[in-house]
Amino acid sequence: MTMTSNRPYMIRALYEWILDNDFTPHLVVFAHAPNVEVPQEYVNKDGQIVLNIAPRAVEGLDLGNKAISFQARFGGVPTHLYVPCQAVLGIYARENGQGMMFDLESNPEPDPDPAPVEPDSKSAKRPSLRVVK
User: Fold this and answer.
1) Residue 125 gets which letter from DSSP?
2) From start to end residue, where is composition biased (Basic residues) (predicted)?
3) pLDDT tens per residue across span 122-133
């Protein structure tokens, strides 16, 4: 039986730990991963971008199980960012570098709740009831 990725849980836990210690949380993101929406002009030659996700630097931060999304300013321009969790390479405190780095996940997880498949009307059995005494 497979389990979901622990990466989003680790990101949330480290984010809280960094804030509890009055430090500034930063995310390292692989900007060329699928579905990543970040300002490409700030991506380095290795395809990475470092994002300040401190409460004073972002608006509407959502650290979800599938992705991280928020609003931030780049060059004074409000920008919406969307980072799938598998594109996060690390989270650390700017002041001392404490945190955790992750390996790049190549494939996103399959959706754990796939849509139910409708049975073919010809092969569907009718429900039946019987009296049990």
Assistant:
1) P
2) 124-133
3) 545 566 666 776
